[in-house]
């Protein structure tokens, strides 16, 4: 039998193992996701809806673009900004940051509105998407088209305020935003086109705040590109039969679900490789971040259902990477 002193020593040692470190990180991630992101946005919209009748506009817009999902991608942009400051490559004013956030929100909103409009007939036929706002006529096509062009104009206005050196990349980004929905009718590699939107967005973001060290946004952008593509493949598996029946191009429709999952795993591996390459420019903290993001991707494949895998990988990978970017910034900034 072990003595009481030995048991206490074992308990103390066990509480400080790497296993418990990962448990603490997991609790922090769940807290940030559920309380800070999910509950905050839901409660805010409910409060505003009760206080102001005109807030129905925000509710309509939210039904189209899901504002909560905008914040998930924003995590990577904030991480890029922190790493840029850490590398002493970023020197931007508060006004520049404000224009960047406005441009990002406007770009995603415009892209989502165009996507809903272009896919409205397919969404109406697909049982999974038939309940969306546009097929259900909760919002009109005129309203959606107006929002698409208004936010596209706001994006270009914000970019113009940032400087003409960003304009070329912004035009390329707009081309991808509008054209992405058509690519699924042309090529099965539309998932990579979607990922390329975020790659171009990160390059555009970096151009506005820095003039050097472009290896940082390129590596992070490539990682995010393959991560988004992998998630889109998993999400596309939900519409495997529908896509084949309606001649929609996608990896699951082309090679089947089992092989599509293998392709998604390869894309996740490539994404992690780019994160590891990025960590070479920083301390070991970012290398640990890369390994933890890899763990998130691995754990996502143990989730039941493709939609849950998609949400888990996309959400928690961004939260983990942002958390360690903050640690890197505070520790070495």
Task: Write a structural description.
The protein has helices spanning about 5-15, 20-50, 55-65, 65-85, 95-120, 120-125, 140-160, 165-185, 190-210, 215-235, 240-245, 250-255, 255-280, 285-300, 305-330. It is built from 15 helices and no strands. The longest helix is centred in the first third of the chain and has 34 residues, at about 20-50. By secondary structure, the chain is mainly alpha-helical. About 40% of the residues are buried. Among the domains are: about 95-185, Orthogonal Bundle (Tetracycline Repressor, domain 2), CATH 1.10.357.140; about 210-333, Four Helix Bundle (Hemerythrin (Met), subunit A), CATH 1.20.120.1780.
Number of helices: 15
Q: What's the multimeric state?
A: single chain
Give start-end ranges of low-pLDDT stretches: 4-19
- Class inferred from helices and paired strands: mainly alpha
3D shape: globular
Mean pLDDT: 82
Q: Summarize the main sheet.
A: none
CATH architecture label name of the domain at 210-333: Up-down Bundle
* Computed Rg: 21 Å
Q: Helix and strand string, N-terminal first?
A: HHHHHHHHHHHHHHH
Q: What's the CATH H-level superfamily name of the domain at 210-333?
A: UbiA prenyltransferase
**CATH topology of the domain at 210-333, what is it called?**
Four Helix Bundle (Hemerythrin (Met), subunit A)
Distance between the termini: 50 Å
The number of distinct β-strands equals: 0
Helix content: over 70%
CATH top level label of the domain at 210-333: Mainly Alpha
Strand content: under 5%
């Amino acid at each position: 039998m072990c003595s009481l002193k030995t048991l206490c020593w074992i308990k103390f040692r066990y509480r400080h193992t790497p296993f418990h470190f990962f448990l603490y990180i997991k609790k922090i991630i769940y807290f940030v996701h559920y309380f800070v992101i999910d509950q905050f946005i839901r409660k805010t919209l409910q409060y505003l809806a009760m206080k102001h009748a005109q807030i129905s506009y925000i509710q309509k817009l939210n039904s189209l673009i899901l504002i909560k999902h905008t914040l998930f991608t924003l995590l990577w942009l904030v991480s890029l900004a922190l790493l840029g400051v850490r590398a002493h490559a970023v020197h931007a004013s508060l006004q520049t940051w404000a224009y960047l956030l406005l441009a990002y929100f406007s770009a995603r909103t415009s892209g989502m509105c165009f996507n809903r409009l272009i896919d409205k007939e397919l969404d109406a036929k697909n049982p999974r998407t038939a309940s969306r706002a546009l097929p259900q006529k909760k919002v009109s096509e005129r309203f959606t088209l107006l929002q698409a062009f208004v936010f596209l104009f706001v994006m270009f206005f914000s970019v113009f305020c940032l400087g003409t050196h960003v304009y070329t990349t912004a035009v390329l980004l707009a081309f991808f935003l509008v054209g992405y929905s058509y690519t699924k009718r042309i090529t099965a590699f539309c998932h990579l086109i979607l990922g390329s939107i975020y790659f171009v967005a990160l390059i555009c973001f970096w151009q506005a705040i820095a003039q050097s060290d472009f290896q940082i946004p390129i590596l992070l952008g490539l990682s995010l590109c393959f991560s988004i593509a992998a998630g889109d493949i998993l999400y596309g598996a939900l519409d495997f039969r529908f896509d084949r029946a309606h001649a929609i191009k996608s990896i699951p429709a082309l090679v089947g679900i089992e092989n599509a999952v293998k392709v998604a795993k390869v894309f996740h591996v490539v994404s992690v490789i780019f994160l590891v390459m990025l960590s070479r420019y920083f301390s070991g903290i970012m290398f640990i971040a890369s390994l933890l993001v890899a763990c998130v991707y691995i754990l996502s494949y143990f989730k039941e259902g493709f939609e849950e895998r998609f949400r888990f990988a996309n959400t928690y990978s961004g939260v983990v990477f942002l958390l360690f970017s903050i640690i890197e910034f505070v520790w070495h900034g």
